[in-house]
Amino acid sequence: MTWVLIALLVVPLVGALVVTFLRKDDTKAKLVAFGFSIVELVLAVLLWTAYDPDGDRIQLAAGVDWIPAFGVRLSFGIDGIALVMIAVIALLIPLVIGAGWTEKLPAGRSQGGYLALILVQESVTVAVFAATDVFLFYVLFEVMLIPMYFLIGGYGGARRQYAAVKFFLYSFLGGLIMLASAIGAYAMASDELGKGTFDWATLVTVVRDADPTTQTWLFLGFFLAFAIKAPLVPFHTWLPDAAAEAPIGVTVIVVGILDKVGTFGMLRYLLPMFPTASKNLAPFVLVLAVAGVLYGSLLATGQRDMKRFLAYVSIAHFGFIALGIFSFTSQAGVGSVSYMLNHSISTGMLILVIGMVIARGGSSQISDYGGMSKVAPLLAGMLLISGLTTLSLPGTNSFVSEFLVLIGSFPTQPVYTILATVGMVLAALYVLWLYQRMMTGPLRGDALVAAAAGPGAVGDPEKKTAIGDLNKREIAVLAPLVVIVLALGFYPQPVLDVITPSVGATLTEVGVTDPVSAQEGK
Amino acid sequence: MNLLVAQAQQIEAPEIDYGAIAPVLIVLGAACISVLLEALLPKHQRWAVQLVLSLVTLVGATGALILYATSERPAQGIATLAGAIAVDSPSLFLWATLLVLAFGSVLLIADRSVEPGGVFVAQAAIRPGTIQDRAQATKTGMQTEVFPLTLFALGGMMTFVASNDLLTMFIALEVLSLPLYLLCGLARRRRLLSQEAAVKYFLLGAFASAFFLYGVALLYGYAGSVKLSSIAAAAAGTDRSDTLLFAGFGLLVVGLLFKAAVGPFHAWTPDVYQGAPTPVTAFMAACTKVAAFGGILRVLTVAFQNTQWEWRGVLYGVAVVSMVIGAVLGLTQTDVKRMIAYSSVAHAGFLLIGSIALVPNGEGVSATMFYLLAYGFTTIAAFGIVSLVRNSDGEATHLSQWAGLAKRSPVVAGVFTFLLLALAGIPLTSGFIGKFVVFSAAIEAGLTPLVVIALVASAVAAFFYLRVIVLMYFSDPAPDGPTVSVPGAFTTIAITLGAVVTLVLGLWPTFVLDWAGTGTFLS
C-alpha cells in the first residue's frame, strides 16, 4: 500500500499541471481541480484504512537516495499524527474549492492559476507531514512558502504585498535557523557514526543522548521555526496580516493546515530528538503557550475585522495545543493531536462560514453586519454551530480535545492549566458576542442595509435586503463539516485510536513514564 | 662568451607537462590568434570569425581538460613549469567551471539581437556627448576586440587559480584584470557611467594589485621563497618573527579580497556592475568571483593552513562585515544591477565562510567550489534577463520599471523569479545546496556562530529578492514601462543554460558534489 502515500504526493501536482493549462476556461479549471481534490480525498481514506494503529512507529515507508554525499534520502512514511493531518488536508481542500466556486478573483487573474497553486500547496503540505528525512523536511518546510506567497500576494486584499512578504520572511528566517540546528545534528551524527545522515530515526538515536548544552542550542533552532509557524506569542504577528489579506480559501489553508506544521514539528522533531532540552525548557514554552491562550482570546474579543478575529482565535488554540504537548502526559498529548485535527475542522468551518458572510456583504468588518439571522437563518445557524465547536461546547469535536488537554495537563502543570482554563471562558465570550453582534437584533449594518434598494435605504431597517440565505452549493460544502463536528463530538474513538499509539511512542522517546494512561483516562 | 654558454647549458629547461596545461595554452593561444585576426580581417567578417574562434576555443579547451582529467594522472596532482603551475583536482574543477561560465558569458557578449549591433561601442575613446559620440551611437558597428580581451582575461583567471607561487599569481592577476578594466568601459549606452566604471575599477584595482605585490614582497622576506608550499614550511615551527608573515598575509589577502568583491573591499562593485555592459558584468560576476575565490582557497589552504588560528578571527570578521554590508545595503538599492552587485557582496561573505572552514577532509574547499559553480550560472542567467528588459534608453534597470512585468512577459518574469529564489537560497535550487554545503562545512569547522549570522543575513537578503518578485507579480505595470525584447538565440541559450543548471544542481547535486570533492590542493 506504499503507493497510496506516493500517489497522495503526486496526484495534486498532476492536477496543478493540468489546471495550469486551463487558465482560459475558469469553469473547466474549477471542475478539474475539484475532481483531483476528490481523488486525493479518496486516496486519503485508503491511506487511513491501510494504516495499522498498533503497527510500526513509521508505516508505509518508502524512499530513494537523493544526495548520497550527505546521506539525504527522499523518504516518506507516516505515523498516526501525520495520518490525521494528511486526512484533514485532503478533506478541506475540496471544500475550499467548493466554497470559492463563485468567488471573484482580482482583475486579470484566472481561476486556473489560483487553483493550480492551491493544488501545489496541497501536495507540498502533505509531503511535509510525510517526510521522514530531516533535510527533506526542511526543504519542504521552505518550499511550502512559495505557493502560499503567491496565493496571498497574487489574490489577496489591499495590503496583500505586505502580508505576503511578511509571511514569507518570518517563516523563512525560522526555517533557516532550523537548518543550522539540523546541520548541527548532522555533524554530530557524522562524528558518531562515521557517516553523516539526515534520516529521522537515526538522528533521534544520535542526538537524544547529546549533552544538555548542545541539545539546548539545537532545540532552540528547531523551536524558533515551529514557534513562528504554529504561531506562538510573540512570534505570531505575521498570522493576523496573512489571514486578513488572503482570500478566504487561502485563509482556511493558512490557519487550518499550514500552522499545524509547527505543532506537528514539535511532536515529531523537538520531543524525540531533544528530550532533555524539551524537559528543561518546558516551563519557557508553557509560559508562551498560556500567554498565547490569554493574549489570543483577549485580542480576539477586541477585533473589529472578522478575518483578524479568526487569526487571534487560532493563536489562542495553538496555545492550548502547545500546552498539551509540553505537559508530557499522554492524555494531554493525545488531546493536543486531536486538537490539531479538530481545530482544522472547526476553524476551517468557521472561516468558510465567515467567508460566506463576507461574500454577501462585501466587507469583513463586524460592525457592518447585524440582525442577519432575519434574512439568512441557515447561515446564522451555521455560524452558531461553527462558533460553538470553536468554543468547545460539549457534544462538538473540539470539546473532546480541549478537555483531554486540560485534564491531561493538570497533574503535571496545575498552574498553567488553571490559567489556560480562563481561555475557555473567554472563548465563550468572543464567539457568542460575535454571533450576537452579527446575527441577532434588528437588521442593521452598512453591508446589509446598503445592499437593499439603493442609497436611500440606509437607516431603514424594515426594508428588505437583497442578501439571501445559503444556496445549495454552500449547504453542500458545510454539511459534511457539520456531520464530522457532531460525529467526532460524540464518538471520537476512531481518531483517538489512531493517534494514541503514536503519541505514546513519542512520549516514550522523551522518556516519560506514563505513556499508556491515556487509554484508561478516556 | 664561453662562460656564458657554459652557464646557459647548466640551466635546465623546466619539465612541461603539456597535456596538463593544455586548456590554458589553448585559451591563451587563441587569444593571440584573435588579436591577429582583429588586425588582418576586414571589418564585416570579424564578428562572425571571432565568435566562432572563441566558442571553438572554449569547447576545445574543455575537451582537452576532460581528456586530461579522465586520463591516468597522479591523484594528488602535479606541479609543472618548474613548480609555477599546480594542476590538481581543484584546479581542474575550477578550470572547468571557468570555461563553462565563460561559454555562457561569450554567448551574452556576442548577442546582437537585443541591441542592434551589440552592446559594445565601436570606438570607446570618443568623448561622451560630442558630435562624434552621437553619430557613433546610431551606427551598428561593434567593437570585436571584446573577444580577445575576454579570452585573455579567461586565460589569466585559469592561470590564477592554478598558480603555485605568488609571483605567477600576481602576473595572472594582472593578465585577468587589465582586459576587464577595458571591457568595463565599452558600453554602447550610458557612456559616462561606463567610463566611470572603467576608471574606478582600474584605479582601485591598481591599488589592490599594489597591496598584493607588497604582501608578496614581505612574504618573500619571511620565507625566502614565493612558493606557497615553502611559505607553509617556513611558517611551521621556526623562530622567525611573525610580523613579516602576518603583515605579508594581510596585504596579500587585501588584494585577493578586493578582486573577490568581499566587503569592506567591495566599494567598486556596485558602480562597476552598474556601469559595465551587462554581458561583461555577467562575465565579471561569475568568472572573476570563481578566479578570486579559487586563488583565496589555494593560498589559505596551501600556504597558511597551519597558521589558521592566528588569522581566522580576522577573516571571520571580514565575512561578517561582507554579509552585513551586502544584505543591508542591498535593501536600499533601486537599480537592479546595483542590487545584484550588493547581493554578490553578501554571497562573497558566504563564500569566505567556506574558504576559512579548513577542515582536514577538504570539505570547505569542495563546498566553496560547488557554491562558485552554482552562483556563477545563476548570475549569468540573471544578467541575461536584465539585458532583455529595455526601454528607449537601453536597459531599464530601475526597479520601478520592472513593476507588473509578469503581466507583460510571464516567462521572463517566471525565470527571473526562479533565479532570485536561487540567489536567496530557497530549496530545490542550486543556491540552497551551495549554502547548505558551505554551512555544514563551517559547522564542522566550529564556525557555528558565523553560520547563524550568515543565516540571518540570508533572511535579510531574501527581502530584497522578494521585493523584486512582488514588483513583478503583484504591482500594476507602469503605463510607459519597458518592453521585453525577444532574445536572440545566443542570449536564449545563455539564460536557459544558467536556469537549467540552477534547477538541476538544486535537484541532483550529487554528480558535481562528488566531482568537487575528488581531491585537495597540491601542497
From TrEMBL, chain A:
Subcellular location: Endomembrane system; Membrane
Entry keyword annotation includes Transmembrane: yes
Bilayer-crossing regions: 6-22, 31-51, 80-101, 113-131, 137-155, 167-189, 217-239, 246-269, 281-302, 309-328, 340-363, 375-395, 415-435, 475-492
Topological relation to the membrane, as annotated: Multi-pass membrane protein
Annotated NADH:quinone oxidoreductase/Mrp antiporter transmembrane domain residues: 131-425
One Pfam family, short name: Proton_antipo_M
Record keywords: Membrane, Transmembrane, Transmembrane helix
Family affiliation: Belongs to the complex I subunit 4 family.
NCBIfam families to which the protein is assigned, alphabetical: NDH_I_M, PRK05846.1-4
Protein name as it appears in the record: NADH-quinone oxidoreductase subunit M
Natural source organism: Lentzea flava
Gene, per the UniProt record: nuoM
From TrEMBL, chain B:
Domain NADH:quinone oxidoreductase/Mrp antiporter transmembrane: 163-459
Membrane topology: Multi-pass membrane protein
Family, per entry: Belongs to the complex I subunit 2 family.
Signal peptide: none
Organism field: Lentzea flava
Protein name: NADH-quinone oxidoreductase subunit N
Cellular compartments annotated: Cell membrane; Endomembrane system; Membrane
Highest taxon, organism lineage: Bacteria
Native organism taxonomy: Bacteria, Bacillati, Actinomycetota, Actinomycetes, Pseudonocardiales
Subunit note: NDH-1 is composed of 14 different subunits. Subunits NuoA, H, J, K, L, M, N constitute the membrane sector of the complex.
Record field: catalytic activity: a quinone + NADH + 5 H(+)(in) = a quinol + NAD(+) + 4 H(+)(out)
Family matches, as HAMAP family: NDH1_NuoN_1 (MF_00445)
Pfam family, one: Proton_antipo_M
Residue stretches spanning the membrane: 20-41, 48-71, 91-110, 146-163, 169-187, 199-223, 243-268, 280-301, 313-332, 339-358, 370-389, 410-430, 450-474, 486-508
